[in-house]
Amino acid sequence: MKLILILTLSLTVSAKENLTQKWMGLNRLNSFDYKKQSFCFKNQDNVITGVNINKQIRPASVSKLFTSLWALEKLGEDYRFKTSFIIKDESIYIKGSNDPFFVTENLLVVMGELASKGLFKRIVFDKSFYLNWSDNKETIKQSLKKIVNSSLWDNYFNEILTSLDIYIKDYDLPYVLPSFFEVSDIQYEDSFSIESEESETNHFSSPLYMHLKQVNIYSNNFYADRIFDQLGGQNSFHKYLYEKFNINSRDTRFDTGSGLGENRTTCSTTLKVLESLKDFTLNNDLSLKDIVSVAGSDSGTLKDRFKDSMSHRVLAKTGTLRHTSTLAGFLGKDQTHTFAVFNHTYKTGKARKMQNKFIRFYSETNATTRFSYHPINYLSVLNTIIK
Fold first, then answer.
1. What domains are defined for the chain?
2. Residue 1 pLDDT grade (very low, low, confident, very high; cuts 50, 70, 90)
């Protein structure tokens, strides 16, 4: 027994040394200042390996994994944003709920429902209504005019309608698209109160976890920042971190949910967030593949990374600022290895290549196994409810 224990410890130490040597060698090869870089891994035996794991770093868009965990724990994986369309006196009043994923396609399927309820002269929307990744009221007003006036539908817009119609049929969705709509009077009001007995049609978004998957695949800054603000912003997030992880805001500071700006955290804290995200999915009948991008399979920022022998081994989130390149996520079947790599350099292209080599080295050294995965063709109307 003692001999086996000594051998195990020896192999563990050796693996740590080899990983650190590889890290230092890659830093030297790319002329990176190793003092400004950090990495950390946690294997299936809960052994943590790393360099500068408690050093403050910029997470960049890896911040979105922090925001995802916070949103899931506070709102629940099946949370849906409700957008109400209330009809009164030949007007449609749109009462939003800060749904950051409400786009043209969502509005079109609602218009299909409203078309049978008569002709309308005016549309009024409130401050909680977002459209096409914008909360700018003038931008929304101009977008609405183009969408709800069939006389303004050009070839590009008709292509959207055709593609959406095909999608609806392919997925057997219960929607009929509008063939005619003509409302040129678009108004904004900060808020309004409409009598409850008036006609109302409600649009309930796809479940939150489906939104977050797309946010993490494409690194959507608008969505991440809006839901971060909706949940209470900086102060509420720091309170959440302290209550959940006993992390002080001096160690981890987030100004935004997207990673834009001057967010700060550590490699060790990132591992804690990753482990909690994994625990959440296990406890709520989800998979990490439902939340995090699968490298080499999903579209977006990881589409062309970790292919060939690394295919279906990496779930991760990338992050890029002008002086930062980051990568954090999970490795192997059942995602038993968590990792984070933070490079602070203006040579972000070199940093990404270095990360690819480093993660591949770890995967081969630890003989991580592949998992099965089939990406879904997601469009914002999938799994929505209108009633």
1. 15-77+210-365 (3.40.710.10), 82-205 (3.50.80.20)
2. low
